[in-house]
Write a structure and sequence with these properties.
Elements lengths: L1 H5 L2 E2 L7 E3 L5 E2 L2 E8 L2 E9 L2
Antiparallel strand pairs: 1-2, 2-3, 4-5
């Protein structure tokens, strides 16, 4: 399965580009951390591998 993922390199819907490394992990992954305040989700920070 990781062989197939490692060959994945395409334009994404929510990002300009996404691809996987040889271990099946996303390359250049970006994660947004949210916190629930007053019953609404609010972004707190954005973490990225770049």
């Amino acid at each position: 399965m990781t062989d197939v993922l490692a060959k994945t390199d395409m334009k994404g819907v929510t990002s300009d580009h996404f691809a996987y490394d040889q271990y099946g992990d996303l390359r250049d992954a970006i994660i947004t951390v949210y916190k629930c305040e007053n019953a609404q989700w609010k972004p707190q920070t954005v973490l990225g591998s770049k």
